[in-house]
Amino acid sequence: MEQSVLHRTLRDIAAVLVVAIFMFPLFWWALTSIKPMYAIFNKDHVVVFDFVPTLINYAVVLLGWSRAEIAIESGSTFGVGGTSSYDSRQTILDSIIVSVGSTALTMVVAVLAAYALSRMTFRTRTGFLNWVLGQRFMPPIAIIVPLVLMYKAAGMRDTDNLFMGYVGLILIYALMNLPIAVLLMKSFFDDVPKDVDEAAMIDGATRWQTFRRIVLPMVRGGIAAAAVLCFIFAWTEFLLSLFLTTIIRTVPVKITTFVTSTGSEWGFISALGTAAVIPGFIFILLVQRHLVRGLTLGSLKE
Amino acid sequence: MASVTVSNVRKTYGDVEVIHGIDLDIADGSFVVLLGPSGCGKSTLLRMIAGLETVTSGDIAIAGRRVNGVHPKDRNIAMVFQNYALYAHMNVKDNMSFSLKLAKRPQSEIDEKVGWAARILNLEPYLARYPRELSGGQRQRVAMGRAIVRDPAVFLFDEPLSNLDAKLRVQMRTEIKELHERLKTTTVYVTHDQIEAMTMADRIVILRDGIIEQIGSPLDVYDHPANLFVAEFIGSPAMNLLKGVVDGNSVRMDSGVVLPLPPERNPGQGRKVVYGVRPEHMGPGTGTGIKATVNVTEPTGPDLHIYADLGGEEICAITSERLTLSRGDTISFNPRLDRIHLFDAGTGKAIT
Ligand SMILES: Nc1ncnc2c1ncn2[C@@H]1O[C@H](COP(=O)(O)OP(=O)(O)O)[C@@H](O)[C@H]1O
Ligand SMILES: [Mg+2]
Predict the structure, then answer these.
(1) What is the pLDDT of residues B9-25, one digit of tens each?
(2) Which residues in chain B land under pLDDT 50?
(3) Could you read off the pLDDT of A166-216 as tens digits, one per residue?
(4) What average pLDDT is seen over chain B?
(5) Are the beta carbons of A158 and A165 closer than 8 angstroms?
């Protein structure tokens, strides 16, 4: 009994330690975001907790406060320079639209394609794996120049049309995510026994009804998992969004503009970085109740 | 209700033919078992009847209508799969009513039918449960409930009991048989278990490597196997099969042991035959007869199984006598002459 208490305690300590190690950067980032300027830039010692917390960094990136307002609030103009605007409200909105849009598009196409790959036989079926591998071999930087030209020609780059900008990024993210999403969804469909489809067909369901009412609900967990992956990719992607659009600045691109010729605005960077965690967090919260294992449990013998 | 007719049906996968021209008539209301070792094509044949596999050549008709190109849902059949194939995301009630909902039947009829099926199958307390919350036997019943609510013309079962434990298997066997007695729906039942086939079937169709070896009632195939394959496959413990040469009114084994033939059987002097006797017809005793040496005995309760060495071959005999035998004892056999099977050693066909 005593030993098992010791055992448990040690295990709990180990768990807390591991979580702490992984959470520390996030914690430090969040902490930095509420530090006033003097606490971030202190050449004498590292300021951990001995500062007066401020929300000024958030006011700038999330409410669009001007330099004058900052100066008044902080009572000093130290470090408030550069020409960039730090208002990131449009950026966050753009990132949400592009990430949600591309995830939705990817999942619709991937689910349909994966079902076909899992259940039907057709000639080009075997080419699929090559497509996935080929796409993985090829880093985006290798094709960025032709892509830029194509986007230009298609009117999705160097345009004032915000809508075209969204379409452009949604399309390229969907394309980047598709192979892996299809591969993932195919493995989830493969886990649903074909007997279930056949039973539904004998019960009188058409192919579409079988898909929609029987198989799709059984891969709910897979859809949630794949959607999270796609969302995270789109939310954090930098290169394509930097090159393929001029009108949209997604969060990762926007943050780079906080590194200016007169210094890096660590306060604003950390505020936007911390704020940027939240939409992804909400998205995962929304889908995580579907992320339960064993949805097909009970369909089969154990 | 309907008859099922299979005429000269073949099935090839790529270059491999797995069903080699099968003819089969299944009468309206009968319970037909397709029996054969694993891989002989039972499932393939059943799935062709269901419409889940295409027919390479030949015809399948249900209730006199050719159904070769007909979608499974339009064949008016119901199928129970080996692994149940339940809809995991639906509760028992929804599993059973799915087909009726698709057919847009009125809710009152759906409730009535599902209630009726649940009563028959003792599923009433479980209607709100999900498949994962049920035991194997209950899942099997849900799969059957899903089939019977539709009131189909033909039931197709593909090894429905092989995932259950032995005790449950015996119980479900009886339940399926009772269900058939009650509904009188034409049933095609696939199994590799000859006991299941014997106990449930009106007629047994014995398959091997995509061809039919014999069709008959259970007792028919047991008492009059058409060939060596059927003789060996049906019956447990299996029929004793001893090679020999006809010599007058007996069969002489290579080892010199002489096996008696009934006087009216005369397969021809010098013919190479296989002499078959079921264990229960061996007539073991201690008096005169064919001498053998006891290897091992297994009491089963009602019977005693005796394994003995007869001229270098191990044979089995069953008796309800309480004989006390031990290894090395000499035992004598007097096979029942009217229950002797003779097969041609070359072709394996029964000699009548
Ligand atoms: N889809 C398929 N492709 C190729 N061969 C198959 C396929 N399905 C079944 N077979 C072959 O057909 C034969 C009969 O299979 P099956 O009907 O499943 O046998 P059983 O149900 O009697 O065990 C087997 O040799 C099997 O390998
Ligand atoms: Mg089979």
Answers:
(1) 999 998 999 999 999 99
(2) none
(3) 999 999 999 999 988 998 899 899 989 999 999 999 999 999 999 999 999
(4) 93
(5) no
What is the count of residue pairs from A and B with beta carbons less than 8 Å apart? 88
The tally of CA atoms less than 13 A away on the side-chain side of residue A224 is: 17
Q: Are residues B227 and B233 in contact, defined by beta-carbon separation less than 8 angstroms?
A: no
* Co-location of A11 and A120 in the same domain: no
- Are B73 and A205 in contact (CB < 8 Å)? yes
- Residue A211: what are its φ and ψ, rounded to 5°? -65, -50
A residues 73-132 closer than 8 Å to B (CB): none
- Report residue B283 CA to chain centroid gap: 27
132-151 in chain B: CB under 8 A from chain A: 132-134, 136, 139, 146, 150
> What DSSP string describes A155-206?
T-SS-S-HHHHHHHHHHHHHHHHHHHHHHHHHHHHHHS-HHHHHHHHHTT--
Chain B interface includes A293 (CB < 8 A)? no
Cβ-contact B136, B168 below 8 angstroms:
yes
Q: How far apart are CA B295 and CA B325, in angstroms?
A: 10
Q: Of B10, B12, B18, B194, which is best to mutate to test ligand 1, by the most ligand atoms within 8 angstroms of its C-beta?
A: B18
Residue of B nearest to A200 (CA): B99
Say which of B99, B134, B136 has its CB closest to residue A203: B99
Distance (Å, rounded) from C-alpha B85 to C-alpha B78? 13
Closest CA–CA distance from residue A208 to any residue of chain B (Å): 12
The residue whose two tokens read 């059973």 is: B96
In a domain, A264, yes or no: no
- Compute the mean pLDDT over every residue in chain A, rounded to the nearest whole number: 83
Atom 25 (ligand 1) nearest CA: B39
Residue B42 Cα, ligand 1 centroid: separation in angstroms? Answer: 8
**Domain of residue A42, residue span:** 5-84
Domain count, chain A: 2
Residue indicated by tokens 């208490």: A5
Q: Domains plus CATH for chain B?
A: 4-227 (3.40.50.300), 237-344 (2.40.50.140)
Same domain, residue pair A106 and A59: no
Contacts of A91 (CB under 8 A, 6+ apart): A249, A250, A251, A254, A272
Q: Which of A190, A35, A45 is nearest to A115 (CA)?
A: A190
Closest to A193 (Cβ–Cβ): which among B77, B83, B89?
A: B83
Query: CA neighbours within 13 Å on the CB side: how many for A86?
Result: 30
Name the residue among B79, B102, B132 with its Cβ closest to that of A199: B79
Whether A261 is covered by a domain: the verdict is: no
pLDDT tens per residue across span A91-109 = 888 999 999 999 999 999 9
